[in-house]
């Protein structure tokens, strides 16, 4: 094999097939999901296919828990796939652990075609050969077993050795056009013939990943920048499979930029920002998180950071991905999430709030009629204020309590006017003058403005700050007068009277 003879894919439009193929090792992280998102978006943009498979051949590290978490993540985010795990398709099965017989068939074809060969040398022997030849040990294998005779192989076996299998790498420059980074060349001799099957017969990732892509018809491989160095090896293997009649093309490759964390370091899996479910637990909604992740290396336009998934799919082209590292900015992510929360319909917003309220024990598993009425009235008051949904329980919990259940936060007492008792008594008197049926936002506001601003001459902060603390127990709450309307006359006055007794 002295040259690269296989063509690269020319697939466009509906012919495009991309894939997402994570290993189930740990909690899904944002870099992994960004890769899934870009593949999904490219498939939807081109009208092609998005394939999802699981690379679970590492028995020591893989887990079903992680597998379930990946499915949970994709389901929560709405990144649906056209072929693969739990969906099916022409290339089943879609878990590598179930494809062993397929890999063995490919191995036999590559052996028969002469593209892979038996290698018996140990690591120590390879090092010694390099030293003896005056070569740097770091250069590794010297391709010395390419043309072993049958007698030589038999002699090794007589010593009790089992061979690994190596790919016969073409002795030429390997050049490809990266969809993100442009033309890249790996000079001839950049790497030696490499192992694709262990001596125990187990194929390595270097074999099974390209084999799966080839047999599943993947036309475009969009993956992380950290895998760029393995690309020429994969091209060499693809070429071998092409010459052996296993595939018809080499896919196009695009290597996505690193996602960076604090400082100049790649975002660590141990960083809370990297944990997808950390963001979900904080109260990110899928639309907000996906919008932000799309900005890590791509953008819709120079003046529009907020966009829908439909807009992303319509505009996304991997050729427009920036090759430079992208930094995860939590503040910007939060701002984008807040913008998407504001875009939700009222009913959708309420339904998304509910799990957070239930988890915090603010409401029960099944809403009572009263709880539903409070939620219906209160949700619009905070939709414009929330950054993440997990802020809702602290903001709304006081509305679901009674006067005797309200406790006053210490920091809420800071900055109270010296005449706080007078303020509370004047407010109570003003509210008592409003009829039960008239106890609405506008009359409540008018009565309190008159009693506290006009009569007592107070500034709004000193007039209404004590009232806010009295009814909510907090320094910050949803709009005051609307909250009083939700609580009703009797409950509002009971809370203010209870607070007055403590100050």
Summarize the helices and strands and which ones pair or pack.
Blueprint: E1 17-20, H1 30-46, E2 49-52, H2 64-77, E3 83-84, H3 100-112, E4 116-119, H4 123-133, H5 150-158, E5 164-167, E6 174-178, E7 182-186, E8 195-197, H6 205-215, E9 220-224, H7 231-243, E10 252-256, E11 259-260, H8 276-282, H9 286-294, H10 309-315, E12 326-327, H11 330-343, H12 346-359, H13 369-382, H14 392-396, H15 420-432, H16 441-455, H17 460-472, H18 480-487, H19 489-500
Parallel strand pairs: 1-2, 2-3, 9-10, 11-12
Antiparallel strand pairs: 4-5, 5-8, 6-7
Helix pairs in contact: 1-10, 6-7, 9-11, 12-13, 13-18, 15-16, 15-17, 15-19, 16-18, 17-19
- State the separation between the terminal residues, measured CA to CA: 89 Å
- Average of per-residue pLDDT values: 95
- Classify the helix fraction into a percent range: 40-55%
- Return Rg in Å: 32 Å
Secondary structure: number of strands: 12
SSE class: mainly alpha
Give the class-level CATH name of the domain at 405-500: Mainly Alpha
What is the third-level CATH name, the topology of the domain at 405-500?
Answer: Arc Repressor Mutant, subunit A
Number of helices: 19
Strand content: 5-15%
Largest sheet: 3 strands, parallel
Which spans have pLDDT < 50 for at least 5 consecutive residues? none
- Within the largest sheet, what's the order of strands? 1-2-3
The best one-word shape is elongated
Task: Supply the CATH architecture of the domain at 405-500.
Answer: Orthogonal Bundle
